[in-house]
Amino acid sequence: MNVALDKEEKEYLERALKMYLDDLKEVIFRTEGHEKKQPLRKEQEVLKHILDKVSITTG
Q1: Which tens digits make up the pLDDT trace of 40-54?
Q2: What single DSSP character describes residue 15?
């Protein structure tokens, strides 16, 4: 799937992902139990991958 975003939209998306990832990092830290942390870590991994893609295109 491709999504066409202009420069401003990419910048907003990148900023939003960074803020969410910061919050998610805190949630993972405060979550007890490996089984509860695992889906959060997977979400974090996927979102970091998306952020990398957005960052490359805004570079």
Answers
A1: 999 999 999 999 999
A2: H
